[in-house]
Amino acid sequence: MNQSILIPIPLLSLSELHVPHHPVTRSESLRDDDTSFAENVPNITVVAGKDVVLPCIVDNLEHFKVAWVRVDTQTILTIHTKVISRNPRVGLAQSSKRHWYLRLKNVEPSDRGYYMCQINTDPMEHSKGYLEVLVPPNIVDSGTTDGVVAREGSNVSLSCRATGHPEPNITWKREDGSEFIYNGVAVSAVESEVLQLTKASRLHMGPYLCIASNGVPPSVSQRIPLKIQFPPMLWIPNQQELAYNGQDVVLVCHIEAYPKSINYWTTAKGDMIISGDKYEAVSSDDSYRVYMRLKIRSVGLADFGAYKCVAKNSLGETDGTIKLYEIPNPHTTFGITTTTTYRQTTTEPAIRHAKKKERKRAKPNKGNNNNSPAIQNEVTDENNHGDVVEDEAPQPTTGPTYYGTIDSREQPGSSFAMSTSLKSRQCCVSNILICCVAYCFVVHQFIASFSV
């Protein structure tokens, strides 16, 4: 490849180069040795679309001529001051008899190769240099995935093809830069023309970037969305909520589904809840995730019970239940009050108490006898798993702290505090009366002794 290719001498004949027709004397022949290249034609690298200049510097040119030749095609481009090529992008510039410049405008990848500068001495002198043309990467549509929609659990392939010189490298990344699972490992980037995802899940869902780069700016990228289809799934942070009469309460439900699901709230009877003065149903979504909130204003007796959040799409449907129980109003006071700090780690006692009140409202206890043993009722919900729960008011335990004035008749432990306080007062009064009687008796005896 590095072997010099010389253009046949007839192309650079003396008549064509306007050399005088007379015998060459020995003195003139000796001058050929004085004509030479001051420096070799350099190798030049240029980005496609730019202009380039290849220099040829000759010492002691005298009456000889200079020509530029494309080596790989054996094409003469210029002869001395005349441009021979019909390519309009080829030009010649000469600042002096010593400097000969070949100009190429708007360089193309096809211009890549060796270029030779020749002097028609005998023997011919020549120097050549290589023109390297770099091409920035370009992503081609023919071998690139447009976008993929697949069922959860299936294998997914994303492909990307790019051209350029040097050959571009392909890198896959998430559009937001987050990590994803590839071959069982969390990675932030994968270098490959094909991104193979095994058993793709909803966690793989989102837009990916195919980035092509080869060191020639600019790098290019293409956005390829990946959609994973799956039926709705619900997650309820709190399946049991507590509220007192007049309180505003918010029920929360999280949904994941794709295609996007139809989401709504219903009452225990199955009636769909519509936003209005009583209810406010709002939702916000992020990709395949939906966050649902149901606000119930000024809760009343009719509002306690079960509520459902429902999600449906073309692949299935599901629902979840949230139960709302009544608790005593901590801000209501009746008769004697005492200030108490009440701590509770679990809502189970309060829920049992709320369930007892619900059952009493549903079935009034006829012929109530204070001396009769506590009535037992079966409660089958998520917390007691069908066990028999004894009707009793919740007992205080450690946990969340509630501060405020508590009704002594409604709150557990307050009746004990009140009775203790009354007994203490009665004891004090008795002691005072005994002391007074004793004092009077002593005084009476003292006065009587003086009288005698």
UniProtKB/TrEMBL annotation:
Pfam families, sorted: Ig_3, V-set
SUPFAM superfamilies in alphabetical order: Immunoglobulin
Residue ranges, compositional bias (Polar residues): 367-378
Entry GO CC: neuron projection; plasma membrane
Subcellular location: Cell membrane
The organism's place on the tree of life at top rank: Eukaryota
The keyword Transmembrane helix is assigned to this record: no
Region entry Disordered, spans: 336-416
Keywords of the record: Cell membrane, Disulfide bond, Glycoprotein, Immunoglobulin domain, Membrane, Repeat, Signal
Protein name (Swiss-Prot/TrEMBL): Ig-like domain-containing protein
